[in-house]
Amino acid sequence: MRPIQMVDTKNQYLKIKEEVDTAIHEVLDSAAYINGKAVQDFTVALNNYQGSKHTICCANGTDALQIAMMALDLQPGDEVITPSFTYIATTEVVALLKLKPVFVEVDARTFCIDVESIKKAITPKTKAIVPVHLYGHAANMEAIMQIAEEHHLYVIEDNAQAIGCDYTFSNGRKKKTGSIGHIGCTSFYPSKNLGAYGDGGAIFTNDDALADKMKMIANHGQSKRYYHDVVGCNSRLDSIQAAILNIKIKELDHYIIARQKAATFYNNAFKNHPKIITPFVADYSSHVYHQYTLVLNDVNRDELNVYLAEKKIPSMIYYPVPGHKQKMFASFGLDHYELKTTDWLTERVISLPMHTELDEEQLNYITTEVLNFINK
Predict the structure, then answer these.
(1) Cβ distance 4 to 359 under 8 Å?
(2) Is the pLDDT of residue 334 over 80?
(3) pLDDT band of 156, cuts 50, 70, 90
(4) Per residue in 47-64, pLDDT tens?
(5) From CA 57, how far away is CA 104, in angstroms rounded?
(6) What confidence category does residue 336 fall into, taking pLDDT thresholds of 50, 70 and 90?
(7) Which CATH fold would you assign to the domain 9-250?
(8) I need a labelling partner for 228 at 20 to 30 A (CA). Which of 1, 2, 15, 99 fits?
(9) Contact at 8 Å (CB) between 275 and 298?
(10) CB 137 within 8 A of CB 157
(11) What is the mean pLDDT of residues 178-190?
(12) How many C-beta neighbours within 10 Å does residue 267 have?
């Protein structure tokens, strides 16, 4: 049996090695390292895949979120509603821009932001909602957009873990996550479903004015060279990463199918076990399984984590400390938060290996050892 990886980017690369190596050498031969043809080609391909009107590539997913919030002219002290149960980048940017993160609950089944919690958290200072499509499952965007419209709020989708996920509206219409809110943001970190071989990110919008502004912000606030209309930053996707991504985006749907196949194996192995809750898929969402995350009942999660490591099976806890308990946000007065579902999940979630290269022998070994520990 091949060694089991949490994310196996090497064997995925070997399958497209010839194409990738050729594309990299084409960039080197062109010497167009920044904003070259590869970036332009990938931007078009990504825009077509997403179905958005505008796509702006940038240096990473965190920059994408920052540029989005800067483009909305949010002011210090403005409140941004976001789940506490997410990676720190989502809320880190809020604090960095001197906005106020307002942490809310997630749905215990989908792990995504809870709609009723959003409603309760809205105040006159609320300006934006940042739903996170966590682990590869969509937040309830139709309900979120309705709330935003009623209260005149912006919606910035954090789509870093769910590129390729389909959201189905109540009328049957489908859209890709990241293309529903006022702005969508994603990451091409190597472990992502569409991962580069370095950092990268992108921003999506259907708003012409926002697109123009975000392009300027990402390029030092320039409307044209040396004419700086707004305060910006320097955030670009380099041509080599774009060349790689332009090959991988053609494989993205196949990658998703491979992940779904692995998830089905896990689901069948753990089906109906009284101590294991497998990932839930809502009627409105597909699942692209950036992570395969279990919720454990009456199981020592941390001991299982150690046990699996001893068996040479990697596993991860995403995330052990929620945002409302992080020291970095202490100045925002965290003592009043009571997020029972979030706290309950942080004590019980564990993510198993999930990537495109898992084979049946590996999956059988992983599931057998998980069950051996839980059933002992």
Answers:
(1) no
(2) no
(3) very high
(4) 999 999 999 999 999 999
(5) 29
(6) confident
(7) Aspartate Aminotransferase; domain 2 (3.40.640)
(8) 99
(9) yes
(10) no
(11) 98
(12) 14
SS3 per-residue string spanning 246-263:
HHHHHHHHHHHHHHHHHH
Residue 267 · residue 291 · CB < 8 Å:
no
Pair 12, 357: CB distance under 8 Å: yes
For residues 209 and 82, is the Cβ–Cβ distance under 8 A? no
Fold held by 251-375? Aspartate Aminotransferase, domain 1 (3.90.1150)
Q: Return the structure tokens found at 106.
A: 């997630």
Q: Which amino acid is at 231?
A: V
User: With contact defined as beta carbons under 8 Å apart, do 305 and 293 qualify?
Assistant: no
Residue type, 315: S
pTM above 0.90, yes or no: yes
Asked if residue 81 lies in contact with residue 121, where contact means CB atoms within 8 angstroms, the answer is yes
Residue 195 identity: G
pLDDT of 223 > 90? The answer is no
List 101's β-bridge partners, or say none: 80
- The closest alpha carbon to 86, from 187, 194, 181, belongs to 187
> For the chain, which residues make up each domain, given as ranges?
9-250, 251-375
Q: What is the 3-state secondary structure (H, E, C) of the chain?
A: CCCCCCCCHHHHHHHCHHHHHHHHHHHHHHCCCECCHHHHHHHHHHHHHHCCCEEEEECCHHHHHHHHHHHCCCCCCCEEEEECCCCCHHHHHHHHCCCEEEEECECCCCCCECHHHHHHHCCCCEEEECCECHHHECCCHHHHHHHHHHHCCEEEEECCCCCCCEEECCCCCEEECCCCCCEEEEECCCCCCCCCCCCCEEEEECCHHHHHHHHHHHECCEEECCEECCCCCECCCEHHHHHHHHHHHHHHHHHHHHHHHHHHHHHHHHCCCCCEECCCCCCCECECCCCEEEEECCCCHHHHHHHHHHCCCCCECCCCCCHHHCHHHHHHCCCCCCCHHHHHHHCCEEEECCCCCCCHHHHHHHHHHHHHHHHC
Distance between CA atoms of 327 and 342, rounded to whole angstroms?
A: 17
Strands in 349-352's sheet, in edge-to-edge order, are 276-277, 292-296, 349-352
